[in-house]
């Protein structure tokens, strides 16, 4: 019996031991996958030893007392408990290891993103360096060609890359420093080098070189390899110099470049442009230029015109056709012509010197000089969001009017993307930090003015694609590139009544391919964002909603609305960002912050009343923290656990915080609701780097001696600017809208016309109010000092002109009287060069002449028709006949001016365009160069005192653009 019992017990123990060994082996295998098999194996071995001890004990007991069955059951029970403890122990370690694994996965994701950002930064920096080297290369080629080595040269100011100074190549610098003197070819990068590198990057990034759509009206498609640097067409009448070049450094004495050199280089550029399409309608495009190669552009373009046209240009045409659709001269002996504006004939008398040679059929050529955008003042933060970004190259990108600005704060230079035809409303930067998408609202004319999106390269400013032209009904208010799949698709919100969300494969063919679209919300949508980690996940926010969208592989969109449950549902969800782990962070109109767990549509954490009023922006920092900004002007710094660490106040006169972007290091960029951009951090005060107007900009005047100008608008701000440092000297709220400004000839006071007939005098240095005068009860429309500085004419909306005598005290004026006779409001004023005669235009296109000392109208045309005028503000005159195109409404031309040397005439219209004519533009067929940049009616244009720079003021777009004659 004893032997049988021992065998039975041994058998039982062997089975149990086998199970334990099997269990140990399985657990060791599992934990090898979790990198802790040594610990688990040790634990299992200890348990095995305990079980073996119990087995030996059981064998001993069985030998001494084989009939003790209860004891054996107890031992089995103990063994089962050990198995249970072992199982629980393994489960606990599995859970611990799982939590650690999730943390490590998040950490790996963070590291991958950091490395990706570093690679993007290196690529962007390399591309920018190549662009700069190409600029130096171009300057070198231009300087050598100008030295007689062949070809035609162009000044640095008008170059494609346009740097400040810098005509020396790298090899020149090496030789100068005593290094080995090598050939410049060893160190120079040509445009082809830049093109090849750009193409290589595009091929690696997208699998092909995307075709681009140029910003010319004809939208001719060319390959990126044809041009490394994009020449943005600023003219409707001729291809003008690109405005994307780096602005030259401020110079106290700007110099006009050689006109013939610019013209020759322009023709050389056109000749080398291969298959680029062109719209020939400027005489500068087909008049042969000395030194130009025969058979390059000129002969081909001449065939587009008839012999009659060429005869007209040479002045040898017959005198039979003395009529024009809107200008008439019945007989050759007539001393006047009739200019028809809006069907109303205006009689304009011809100067005696023009009587024998003036012909309506002649064509006046456009000037051989061009305008290039030098600087754009202003920023659109009043009604736009997410429109301020820092690029790896050190430039910040933002927009105003129809211009996207790339501003380098360290170098104080701007480059400009001018592909848009109307207001830019949205901006998005590709994950590679090289490409930018910008969306615009509908324009005034043509297909290119329909709402659309442009994809362009931030280094070369080449347009890669135009998306959705004709597909959108409202402006594109929100844009976002996908982030989890390296930006292959683009989401856009159409601000139509249905608030359509559309998804685009922007790399497919010309115009992109629309993957899908659907109605987003009946209410306002303020932002759309792709999830940074989850592919196909999109979040939209706006009035009364936050929506989580999923885009499947078939291009279908599915929406889940955010559920607020017991938390306060806001009127607006106003801001959105993401944590490093993929959670969604939103801010609302009540000042609350909410955290939405990744992959869900419910709130996991809620921070109440963080701001007093709406949260306008949430910026995710590189270290995992956040910065929030709101309507209360407060900036708050949070750590990655959303604990407040610091705060900063934005001064009230700068406006509320609209957008926060992370700059270099700890630097922050803050866009405000009063169209300012500030820079700083939480340890130092915030410094304004961009300032602007916030409402309709009506008036602009230049300083007669120095490089300064003054602006005034409906926002009641009177601002003095410096055009060399591109900054605001001072700004003053005068308490009423400003409709007219002028600077006295001595440059010591500013006069500003307001509403209710009031106009005020301010000291130009201290901005102190010196005096206030009142004339009538209507708005002061225009003001003009006489050339000798003794008289001031004030034009009012009450149809009268008030004449003042300037006294020895700068701010004291003595009224002489008022000139009455106009049947509409006074729109423009000009003085004769001898200060003896004043001429005026009115709202009904009338032109009258006045004796200012007597305040009487001069009716004898023989007295005034031969006069020379100090200024050219009047849009209706003999000198401006050619600025009126056919079918133009009289109100479409808002402002005109001429330069001091009387070479150029510039006019500004209601369609956001500036046109450059030769002065005088007295022929009905006067050709011009046309430039875009403004998106609203251009209310004023004025040349600076040096005649090299031109300033233009936008109306609703609140911008000031500074142009340079090149």
From TrEMBL:
Residues 147-166 have a biased composition (Gly residues). Pfam families: Beta-prop_EML, Beta-prop_EML_2, HELP. Residues 55-74, 234-248, 288-301 have a biased composition (Low complexity). One of its GO terms (cellular component) is microtubule. SMART domains: WD40. One of its GO terms (molecular function) is microtubule binding. This is HELP domain-containing protein. It comes from Anopheles gambiae (African malaria mosquito).
């Amino acid at each position: 019996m004893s032997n049988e019992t021992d065998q039975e017990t041994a058998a039982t123990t062997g089975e149990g031991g086998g199970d334990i060994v099997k269990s140990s082996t399985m657990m060791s295998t599992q934990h090898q996958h979790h990198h802790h098999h040594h610990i688990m194996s040790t634990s299992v071995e200890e348990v095995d030893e305990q079980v073996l001890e119990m087995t030996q004990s059981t064998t001993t007991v069985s030998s001494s007392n084989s009939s003790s069955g209860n004891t054996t059951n107890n031992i089995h029970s103990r063994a089962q408990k050990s198995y249970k403890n072992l199982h629980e122990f393994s489960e606990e370690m599995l859970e611990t290891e799982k939590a650690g694994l999730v943390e490590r996965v998040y950490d790996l994701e963070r590291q991958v993103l950091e490395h990706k950002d570093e690679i993007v930064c290196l690529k962007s920096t390399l591309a920018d360096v190549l662009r700069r080297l190409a600029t130096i290369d171009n300057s070198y080629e231009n300087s050598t060609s100008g030295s007689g080595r062949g070809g035609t040269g162009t000044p640095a100011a008008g170059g494609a890359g346009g740097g400040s100074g810098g005509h020396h190549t790298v090899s020149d610098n090496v030789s100068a420093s005593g290094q080995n003197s090598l050939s410049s070819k060893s160190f120079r990068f040509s445009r082809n080098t830049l093109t090849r590198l750009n193409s290589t990057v595009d091929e690696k990034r997208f699998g092909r070189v995307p075709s681009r759509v140029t910003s010319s009206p004809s939208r001719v498609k060319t390959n990126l390899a044809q041009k490394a640097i994009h020449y943005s067409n600023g003219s409707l009448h001729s291809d003008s110099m690109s405005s994307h070049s780096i602005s030259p450094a401020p110079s106290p004495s700007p110099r006009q470049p050689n006109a013939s050199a610019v013209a020759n280089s322009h023709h050389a550029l056109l000749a080398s442009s291969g298959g680029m399409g062109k719209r020939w309608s400027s005489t500068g495009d087909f008049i042969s230029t000395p030194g130009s190669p025969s058979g390059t552009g000129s002969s081909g373009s001449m065939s587009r015109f008839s012999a009659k046209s060429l005869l007209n240009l040479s002045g040898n045409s017959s005198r039979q056709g003395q009529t024009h659709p809107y200008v008439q001269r019945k007989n050759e002996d007539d001393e006047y012509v009739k200019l028809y504006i809006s069907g109303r004939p205006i009689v304009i008398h011809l100067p005696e010197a023009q009587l024998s040679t003036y012909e309506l059929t002649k064509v006046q050529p456009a000037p051989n000089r061009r305008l290039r955008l030098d600087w754009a003042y202003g920023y659109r933060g009043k009604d736009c969001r997410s429109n301020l970004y820092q690029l790896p190259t050190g430039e910040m990108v933002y927009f105003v009017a129809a211009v996207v600005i790339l501003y380098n704060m360290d170098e104080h230079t701007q480059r400009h993307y001018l592909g848009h035809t109307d207001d830019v409303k949205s901006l998005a930067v590709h994950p590679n930090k090289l490409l930018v998408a910008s969306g615009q609202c509908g324009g005034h004319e043509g297909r290119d003015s329909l709402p659309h999106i442009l994809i362009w390269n931030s280094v070369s400013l080449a347009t890669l694609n135009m998306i959705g032209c004709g597909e959108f009904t409202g402006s594109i208010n929100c844009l976002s590139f996908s982030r989890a799949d390296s930006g292959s698709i683009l989401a856009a919100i159409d601000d139509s009544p249905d608030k359509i969300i559309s998804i685009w494969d922007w790399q497919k063919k010309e115009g992109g391919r629309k993957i899908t679209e659907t109605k987003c919300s009946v209410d306002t949508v303020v932002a759309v964002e792709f999830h940074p980690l989850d592919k196909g996940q999109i979040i939209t926010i706006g009035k009364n909603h936050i929506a989580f969208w999923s885009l499947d592989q078939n291009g279908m969109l599915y929406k889940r609305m955010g559920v607020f449950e017991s938390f306060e549902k806001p009127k607006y969800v106003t801001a959105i960002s993401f944590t490093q782990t993929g959670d969604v962070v939103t801010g609302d109109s009540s000042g609350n912050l909410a955290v939405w767990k990744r992959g869900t549509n419910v709130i996991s954490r809620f921070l109440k009343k963080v701001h007093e009023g709406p949260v306008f922006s949430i910026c995710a920092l590189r270290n995992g923290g956040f910065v929030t900004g709101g309507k209360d002007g407060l900036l708050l710094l949070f750590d990655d656990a959303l604990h407040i660490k610091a705060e900063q106040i934005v001064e009230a006169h700068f406006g509320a915080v609209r957008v926060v972007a992370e700059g270099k290091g700890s630097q922050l960029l803050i866009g405000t609701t009063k169209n300012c951009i500030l820079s700083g951090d939480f340890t130092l005060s915030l410094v304004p780097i961009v300032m602007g107007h916030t409402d309709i900009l009506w008036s602009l005047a230049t300083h007669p001696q120095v490089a300064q100008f003054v602006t005034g608008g409906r926002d009641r701000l009177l601002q003095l600017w410096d055009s060399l440092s591109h900054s605001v000297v001072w700004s003053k709220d005068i308490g009423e809208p400003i409709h007219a400004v002028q600077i006295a000839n001595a440059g010591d006071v500013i006069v500003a016309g307001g509403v209710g007939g009031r106009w005020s005098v301010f000291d130009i240095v201290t901005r102190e109010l010196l005096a206030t005068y009142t004339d009538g009860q209507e708005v002061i429309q225009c003001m003009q000092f006489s050339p000798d500085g003794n008289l001031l004419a004030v034009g009012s909306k009450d149809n009268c002109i008030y004449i003042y005598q300037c006294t020895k005290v700068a701010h004291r004026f003595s009224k002489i009287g008022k000139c009455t006779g106009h049947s509409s409001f006074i729109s423009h004023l000009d003085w004769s060069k001898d200060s003896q005669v004043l001429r005026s235009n009115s709202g009904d296109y009338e032109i009258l002449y006045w004796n200012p000392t007597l305040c009487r109208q001069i009716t004898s045309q023989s007295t005034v028709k031969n006069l020379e005028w100090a200024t050219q503000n009047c849009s209706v005159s003999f000198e401006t006949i050619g600025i009126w195109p056919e079918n133009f409404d009289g109100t479409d031309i808002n402002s005109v001016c001429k330069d001091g040397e009387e070479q150029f005439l510039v006019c500004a219209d209601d369609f956001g365009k500036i046109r450059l004519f030769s002065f005088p533009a007295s022929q009905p067929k006067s050709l011009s160069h046309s430039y875009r940049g403004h998106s609203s009616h251009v209310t004023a244009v004025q040349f600076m005192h040096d005649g090299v720079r031109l300033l233009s003021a936008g109306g609703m777009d609140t911008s000031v653009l500074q142009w340079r004659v090149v």
